[in-house]
Design a protein that fits this description.
Helices cover about 65% and strands about 0% of the residues. The protein is mainly α. It has one domain. It has a two-stranded antiparallel sheet with strand order 1-2. It starts with a helix and ends in a 9-residue tail after the last helix.
Length: about 400
């Protein structure tokens, strides 16, 4: 292995060690979800209690429980010496790091392809700039699945679609890349059939395990959510909170901070239909460009980014870990069409840095609507809109023919 490749691998490992450590030392407990919700959920399932997504409705798809259970296995030998919480945190960091290393091996390998090395450096930069939230959330499980699945769509469409579909049953967003692959026109019926078959098989398994009304709880439970303070649509209401005309409340039911202000509930209600309309519009746009002869490898990355950015911009939740969703589309963009990936890559790195500046660094201030964090999150949310517009513009501008990457 060449020295530059060794340096790349070393940087990736060091980045994970650094971000893992930052989770223990930064304020506002950025590892909170892992020990406060993932550990109790998985412990209950193992001890004969309720099984989230099977015996109780859940905000996540059912496969999200799998990495939580695997972490229990990794943590078990450490628990007597470190205690349950510390052992579980270490087990989670190890599990995520292993998944990322496997995906990095697929992406970079022996480092012989320059654009793949550049994609690797981008991933390292995004990981460090985003900080602990990049590792200590369930979304971190889906990032390597989306990266490998997206890369494999080019030459291993069956395996790629299976990975992406499995990822979508952990957290919905990898389905956006499947949708982009279907719209982009290359083997569309095959990709759609594989995704539907995998989903049907999983649904059958979940049903046999006892899920019925809980099968799609991850969709139905979203309807009752209010407008979370980090959501793009909450930005004007944060400024109202800063001026004293809106209130930030904590929802015990869904464990998030939400905005209470005149008009906030109405905005929250309309965000879901807006999301559906945006996704449908981007889908039509992608199909139109594919039918016009746009090259698949040029169309897939910006189309994936447009779908993912739309899911974030129109989301009533807006959690900081949503920024991890943007990593895979940029990596695909760099690998498949490096010359036109620079702007998206720069914006995503800036989004990661702004998100870290808000959560966890100034999050206490945001909860009290202090000026600095409100300015930071406003800049972050505006940049998300710019990224969405840029991705849509890139889809429109994909030419009808282009050389394929080697």
């Amino acid at each position: 292995m060449r020295p530059r490749t060794l340096a790349l691998w070393a940087a990736f490992i060091v980045a994970h060690a650094l971000v893992t450590w930052l989770g223990w030392v930064l304020p506002n407990h950025p590892m909170g979800d892992v020990v406060l919700v993932y550990e109790p959920w998985s412990a209950a399932a193992l001890s004969g209690g309720g099984v989230m997504g099977i015996t109780a409705a859940w905000v996540y798809p059912q496969l999200a429980l799998v990495p939580m259970l695997l972490t229990q296995l990794l943590a078990a030998p450490l628990t007597p010496a470190l205690g349950a919480d510390n052992a579980y945190l270490i087990g989670w960091a190890v599990l995520i790091t292993i998944g990322d290393l496997l995906a990095f091996a697929v992406l970079v390998g022996r480092g012989q392809v320059r654009r793949r090395r550049l994609a690797g450096w981008f991933w390292i930069g995004a990981l460090v700039l985003l900080g602990p939230i990049a590792l200590y959330r369930i979304d971190a499980v889906t990032v390597p699945l989306a990266i490998v699945g997206g890369l494999w769509l080019a030459r291993r469409p069956v395996a790629g679609t299976v990975l992406l579909t499995l990822g979508a049953w952990v957290k919905i967003w990898p389905g956006a890349i499947v949708l982009a692959a279907i719209a982009a026109g290359r083997r569309s019926p095959r990709v759609a059939l594989i995704a539907a078959s995998v989903s049907a098989g999983l649904i059958a398994v979940f049903f046999l395990l006892g899920a019925d009304r809980e099968l799609f709880g991850f969709l139905t439970t979203q309807g009752g959510r209010g407008l979370q303070i980090e959501a793009v649509a909450a930005t004007p209401f944060l400024w109202m909170a800063a001026s004293g005309t809106a209130v930030i409340d904590y929802s015990i039911e869904i464990l998030t901070f939400q905005i209470r202000a005149p008009g906030a509930d109405l905005v929250s209600i309309w965000l879901t239909p807006l999301m559906v309309a945006m996704v449908a519009g981007i889908l039509v746009l992608g199909v139109w460009r594919a039918q016009a002869g746009a090259a698949w490898h040029r169309l897939l990355p910006p189309l994936s980014m447009a779908f993912v950015a739309a899911l974030i911009v129109s989301n009533k939740v807006g959690s900081p870990q949503f920024q991890t969703w943007l990593i895979a589309p940029v990596i695909l963009w760099i690998v498949f069409d490096r010359a036109r990936a620079h702007a998206a890559a720069a914006m995503v790195l800036m989004l990661c840095a702004l998100t870290l500046a808000v959560y966890p660094l100034t999050y206490d201030g945001l909860l009290h609507a202090h000026l600095l964090p409100v300015v930071l999150i406003t800049a972050r949310n505006l940049l998300l809109i710019v990224l969405l517009v840029h991705a849509i513009r890139a889809v429109v501008r994909v030419p009808a023919s282009a050389a394929r990457p080697h």
